[in-house]
Amino acid sequence: MDRCNRLVDVGRRQFLRGSAFAAATAVALPTMPAKAAPSLALVEYPSNKLANVANLKPNEPFDVTYPDGDAPGVLLKLGTKVEGGAGPDGDIVGFSTICPHKGFPLNFNADDRTLNCPGHYSRFDCEAGGQQIWGQSTANLPQYALRVDDKGDIYAEGLDELLYGRLSNVL
Ligand code: FES
């Protein structure tokens, strides 16, 4: 019994020593103010000329890259005015062609104006701002903000979603 009491006493002393150390540490260490992480969503987009209206044929994809050469995309003249469409007829749209799910390259289907993924079969509606309409992706397709000048030159000036695999859209 005496041995048992000694063990309890040793345990109590070690506990008190630990508590004293913790209290001393709490007093000695200054509290560091939390640093706000920089926002990765705030990026500057280049204004890149991608094509001229004369280069586009109705319902045929025109391959481009934006915002840099490692980001494949496509311009489409859909033939009917759509939300977010640019140009004199409001029917020109542009999208990244990298699937937001796992980065497979997308193919355009002219019959229903969708971009389709061969990886896990996600489908994106080009007439509805790249909205995902089927498949594994949990994000919509990044769409270009387009501007068409008086000469018909088409400029991309931004993206509405994060490109697959990037921390920000401009490297
Ligand atoms: Fe496109 Fe998975 S990579 S659906």
Q: Overview of this structure, please?
A:
This protein has 171 residues and is an alpha+beta fold. The chain has a domain at 48-159: Rieske Iron-sulfur Protein, CATH 2.102.10. It is built from one helix and ten strands. The protein has one helix at 2-28; strands spanning 48-52, 62-65, 72-77, 92-96, 107-109, 114-116, 123-125, 131-134, 144-148, 153-159. The protein is globular, with a radius of gyration of 28 Å. Bound molecules: FE2/S2 (inorganic) cluster.
What is the SS-derived class? alpha+beta
Q: Helix amount, in percent?
A: 10-25%
* N-to-C series of helices and strands: HEEEEEEEEEE
What ligand species are in this complex? FE2/S2 (inorganic) cluster
Under CATH, the homologous superfamily of the domain at 48-159 reads: Rieske [2Fe-2S] iron-sulphur domain
Spatial extent as radius of gyration: 28 Å
Strand content is 25-35%
Average pLDDT for all residues? 84
Shape: globular
Query: Major β-sheet, in short?
Result: 4 strands, antiparallel
Strand segment count: 10
Flag low-confidence runs: 38-42
Count up the helices: 1
CATH architecture type of the domain at 48-159: 3-layer Sandwich
